[in-house]
Design a protein that fits this description.
Elements: H1 4-12, H2 20-26, H3 32-46, H4 50-65, H5 70-83, H6 93-114, H7 118-138, H8 142-150
Helix pairs in contact: 3-4, 3-7, 4-6, 6-7, 6-8
C-alpha cells in the first residue's frame, strides 16, 4: 500500500481518486513542477532579477488555466519516456489556486526588485522559496491547505 501520509498530502493538493500503483509511480514526480519553480525562484531572488521572477509568474499563471502546470509538459513529453513512468495527472483546483497565489507573489517580488526595494524583495522572495521548497520536499502545500480551508474541502481535498 502507498504511504497514507503522502496520499493525504497529495489528495490535499487535489490529486484524489488515484490508486496505489499510480501514486507509487507518479507520486515522486508530482514534485517536478514545485522543484523547478523553487529553483527558478531561488535564482530570481538571489540575482534580484525581475525578469526571471516575472517569467516564472507568467508560467505559474498559465497553470491556473491549463489542466497542468507548464513544467509538467517537460516531464510528460520528455522525462517520463526516459523513466518509463506514466504521465502526471491533471491538476485540481487546489494546485491551480497555488499557481495563482504564486503568480501574484512572484509579480510582487519582481516588482520590489524592479523598484530597487531589495529588502522588500528578499522579504517576499525568501518565504516564497521556502513554501515551494516545503512542497518539493514533503508534498505539504500551504496554498492547497488554504484553498481547502477557504472552500470547505476535507483533508483529502474533497467537499
Amino acid at each position: 500500500m502507498f504511504n497514507s501520509t503522502i496520499r493525504d498530502r497529495l489528495e490535499a493538493q487535489g490529486f484524489c481518486d488515484l490508486d496505489d500503483a499510480t501514486l507509487a509511480e507518479v507520486g515522486p514526480w508530482l514534485r517536478w513542477a514545485p522543484v523547478l519553480c523553487a529553483l527558478f525562484m531561488t535564482l530570481g531572488v538571489f540575482l534580484q532579477s525581475p525578469v526571471v521572477l516575472w517569467a516564472l509568474a507568467a508560467t505559474a499563471f498559465l497553470g491556473v488555466f491549463l489542466p497542468f502546470h507548464p513544467f509538467d509538459l517537460l516531464y510528460n513529453h520528455g522525462v517520463r519516456h526516459l523513466t518509463g513512468t506514466r504521465p502526471l495527472p491533471h491538476n485540481g483546483p487546489q494546485r491551480k489556486f497555488a499557481c495563482g497565489l504564486a503568480s501574484a507573489w512572484l509579480l510582487a517580488t519582481g516588482g520590489a526588485f524592479y523598484a530597487g526595494a531589495s529588502t522588500l524583495g528578499f522579504a517576499l522572495g525568501i518565504p516564497l522559496i521556502l513554501v515551494a521548497a516545503l512542497v518539493s520536499i514533503t508534498h505539504i502545500c500551504i496554498p492547497s491547505m488554504i484553498y481547502n480551508y477557504l472552500f470547505g474541502k476535507d483533508g483529502a481535498g474533497r467537499a
